[in-house]
Amino acid sequence: MSAIADQVTELVRPIVEGLGMELVEVTFRKTKQGDELTVFIDKDGGVSLNDCEAVHNAIDAPLDELDPTQGKPYTLNVSSPGLDRPFKTDRDFAKHIGMDVEVKLFAPKKELGKSFVATLRSHESEKGTVTLEVKGQVFEIDKKDIAIIREHIEF
Fold first, then answer.
1. Cα dihedral angle (108, 152, 132, 125), rounded to 10 degrees?
2. Which residue in 87, 128, 144, 146 could disulfide with 92, CB within 3.0 to 4.6 Å?
């Protein structure tokens, strides 16, 4: 995470939570169109356009006061993280227990390969592990070995 994203995360987390939502992630990136600061939010039942607008309005003035870019202009976006986003938070893992997930590892494991679909059985935040079931076999994998884990969506 960038220093700007860290500062903004610290500032907006209590505001977002005060509105009954979860702050999933803050990103800051430079694009051809200019700098973009994006605040990703989530809540049970999904995020509406009105939720995004409420958060945008609530964080706009505090961000102006913080001035994370030292006066350089940027575009502020507030968004839901999307259906196919990688899991970032303990809540992401908790709400997907018992569901099928797509997993991509940094390096292949002999029994699993590098990419596979599994059922998420548990998440141990303190240990930094997830327990996955693949074709009836159970594997405990360190989260640091996982490049991406997200909900498996069949079309």
1. 100
2. 87
**Distance separating alpha carbons of residues 25 and 110, to the nearest angstrom:** 33
Question: Is residue 120 within 8 Å of 102, Cβ to Cβ?
Answer: no
Indicate whether 84 belongs to any domain: no
Report pTM: 0.72
Task: Give how far Cα 155 sits from Cα of 14, 48, 152, Å.
Answer: 37, 23, 10
Whether residue 65 contacts residue 22, with contact meaning beta carbons closer than 8 Å, is answered with no
Q: How many CB atoms lie within 10 A of CB 117?
A: 13
Residue 8: both structure tokens together: 């903004």
**What is the C-alpha to C-alpha distance for residues 29 and 66, in angstroms, rounded to an integer?**
18
Report pLDDT digits (tens) over 29-88.
999 989 999 999 999 888 999 999 999 999 999 999 999 999 999 999 999 988 788 988
